[in-house]
Amino acid sequence: MTFIDAQIDRIVGPTHHFGGLGVGNLASQMHAGQTSNPRAAALQGLDKMRLVAGLGVPQLILPPQPRPYFALLKALGFTGSPAEILQSVLTKNPAILSAAASCSAMWTANAATVTPSCDRNVGSAVMTVANLSASLHRSIEAAQTQNELAALFGNALEVRQTLPGGAPMRDEGAANHMRFSGIDGQPGLNVFVYGDGSPEPQCHWPRQTKATGQAIARSHGLQEDNVFHLKQHPEAIDAGAFHNDVVAMSHHDLLIHHELAFAQGSCQEIERLRRRFEDVVQSPLRVLRISSKELSLNDAIKTYFFNSQIVTASHAGMTTWTILCPVQVKRNPVTYELVERLRAEQFFHTVHFVDLGQSMDGGGGPACLRLRVPLSEQELEHIPNSAFWTENRDSNLRHIISDRYPRELKLIDLANPEICQRSLETQELIAKCLGQKPANA
User: Fold this and answer.
1) Measuring CA to CA, which residue among 123, 46, 61 is closest to residue 384?
2) Contact criterion met (CB below 8 Å) for 117 and 124
3) Among 33, 142, 170, 336, whose CB has the most other CB atoms within 10 angstroms?
4) Which of 379, 326, 417 lies closest to 86, judged by CA?
5) What SS3 state is found at 421?
6) pLDDT for res 42
7) Which of 17, 243, 252, 257 is the catalytic position?
């Protein structure tokens, strides 16, 4: 049976701004309060989707979630008309206004953790929606994300609600999960990366726990021998690697990671992963460890080299691996030389450098913007056609974005009721363009 990695990206919303809310996210904090460009953010995301779809990869699109999220503001005790609520929250607690207007759902790598049917002991493919309970602005995404993914995949796989919240079970989705596989239809090996436990980072709160990975592995029916748990290096978390996909990337039989991606003592678990992969797949797992001497942790995080997106591209009957790197990788001599060496050594066949400046300034690169969902050809057929990227759909979306999105936005603008009403109307137009029922704010 053939399995295909579908990619899901979300249109960046018209209230995209730099609120600096990301826990341990240095890019987010560094750009807090600066003027954003929602129009450029949305078009840059669409440009990446166009590129991926043009490579022959199934590209699915989600609309922005409705923002500002007035349900949050009302739940926190703000009352009155929309205009009165917005002005009151801006005056009394601007961080709450920022959270209610955040477009962080654009980073769909955090939406869920996915297990394809071939990895399970019994049953169909399954995904567990992430609770994102480490941050207020992200935790409000989960309920809507579950509804969206259930509508999108309801006939193709099982979409499960979030794990119970609370600090012990905080879950940031696929950004802390890696799957390794060989021939289509074979069981894969699943690696869950966590940050809690001794030794703890000194500066930033880990956003994923070991208990979460263990719970997902159990509930998804994964074979115990095919599940691995790796602890993030606390030094990496303190340096700004708030998710594993900032210091490690994977695709099928390939793992590329910084030497400080995983805590001391992880070498034995990685070696066990190698041995198990060879037993299951009958071929070696390629593991490339990038030393600090070759690439400093600071440069890795600044360029988001490890957050590059690898896809299996199909064209004219040929299958190749393509890597989409942030343009920052090209601008940095160290990472540019590294990616060119890896291409020469055939770790991948083609490199594209993508400009995602607005997302990068908020702390998210190419891989942050997509959720990878391995599906069989039969499962893929159950997904509504309206969810796929097409030239015509792309054109319609670009028209809405160019016509209605602001070029400049600051936090204070989010208290303007006219701007907020226009934003909600625009998000509704995009949802209709994608054949989806608009959600209530």
Assistant:
1) 61
2) yes
3) 170
4) 417
5) helix
6) 98
7) 243
Residues 177, 233, 257, 368: which is the catalytic one? 368
Residues 6+ apart with CB under 8 A from 330: 336, 353
Q: Is the predicted pLDDT of residue 25 greater than 90, yes or no?
A: no
Q: Name the nearest CA neighbour of 109 among 217, 227, 245.
A: 245
Percent of the chain with pLDDT over 90: 86
Find the catalytic residue in 172, 235, 379, 428. 172
How far apart, in whole angstroms, are the C-alpha atoms of residue 36 and residue 28?
12
Homologous superfamily in CATH for domain 3-433? Succinylarginine dihydrolase (3.75.10.20)
pLDDT tens digits, 150-169: 999 988 899 999 999 788 99
Main-chain phi, psi angles of 114, to 5 degrees = -115, 135
Q: With pLDDT > 70 as the criterion, what percentage of the chain qualifies? A: 99
Mean pLDDT for 47-76 is 97
- Residue 386: which residues within 8 A CB-CB, separation 6 or more? 393, 434, 435, 436
Domain coordinates in residue numbering, the chain: 3-433
In DSSP terms, which residues pair with 413 in a beta bridge?
none
The 10 Å Cβ neighbour count of residue 68 is 27
Give the CA-trace dihedral at 87, 93, 95, 99, to 10 degrees. -60
Q: Are 215 and 169 in contact (CB under 8 A)?
A: yes
CA proximity to 148, closest of 249, 71, 243, 62: 62
Residue 323 and residue 348 in contact, taking contact as beta carbons nearer than 8 Å: yes
Is residue 172 among the annotated active site residues?
A: yes
Residue that has been written with the tokens 């890597």 in this structure: 323
